[in-house]
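Researcher: For the record, we're logging two predictions in this thread. I'll number them. Prediction 1 follows.
Model: Prediction 1, sequence and structure:
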Amino acid sequence: MLYLRSTLLFAAALATTLVSHAVPYSMAPNHHGGGGGTPNTASGVYAVTFTISVTSTLPANSIMICKAQIVPSQGGMEGFNYLMNAVPLESAAVAATVSGNTATCALQIPFSWAVSGNQTGVQLSYEIDAVNPVGSLPAVVRTSSQQGISEPYPAGGGTSSLSFSVTF
């Protein structure tokens, strides 16, 4: 039993070590998307707007924070390639404006990346947190999130507007 427990602890430590040490993007093997092709530049801005219907009971004076992040799509192999290569990530966060039972927030995520020809967009993730006022614990009292939202690159390096309705 001790041997099995030691082996499991070693495997867990090794897995944590492998995941937590990122390779610099410029040094990552096949760092232009994992699918060949000539590197190009993809750039633009994602303008993300959230309309949040607040149906949960939150502590008085809670603050709502909206966060979003993007990473380049990897030609349908997101999960596998992200474990193998370091990839760029862009993110933004903003405090929401609350009026009655509705909160809204808008943020922009500019980006410019070297990508291969088979990469045509991003994977977007967002998180909305309700946090207590400063000094109150727990700090985060409620979270809602979504991952793996596929979006094409903005046309011609422009702005792509995205809107999400979230029940919180």
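Researcher: Logged. Prediction 2.
Model: Prediction 2, sequence and structure:
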Amino acid sequence: MWPFLVVYTAAVISPGPDFALVVRSALTRGRKASLLNALGIGCGVGLHTLIALLGVSVLVQASPLLATTLPLVGIAYLLYLGWGGLTAKADTRMVVLEQDQADRGDFWRGFLTNVLNPKALLFFSAILLQLIDGFSILAQVFILVYVLIVTTAWFALVGVLLATERLRQRFLHKRHWIDRSAGAIFVLLAALFLLDWWQRFIV
């Protein structure tokens, strides 16, 4: 079990779409929004893990149509997030630091960003299955709980650390640049994922 714990922990703390989303929310929308992102990401990881443990991901990989098209859905969603960020406009009005802005959309953005992440689809459908092969039911339940707690806790920590009033005040007049930077990261990740998809399925 230790190989899985080490590999997964390293994977969850490495920067990616989830990290970019939480950073943007923490700096532009506040602590509550970033915490809802973290909860959504945790639930997304939990769904990935449950699907892998139930063997559904094996069926997906066995279907050429699903294995080919599902990553494209995730890439399209990253491009959607990227376009929204890149087209953010500067607010020329008097800008005042607002209280935490959060709604259920923050949860769903975190959930969808994780669930539709092509790399997450690959990790849980291939790598995870190799690492947990032969595990007992009890061990599999432990893994499910572990990924839920560790993922949510990590991104919640990132959100809390970055959503301090001092940091938000510092970036207040650069809010649109934060959105644009996050948008550029989403587009870059989408391009890298598309290149990986092309090499795996087309070339």
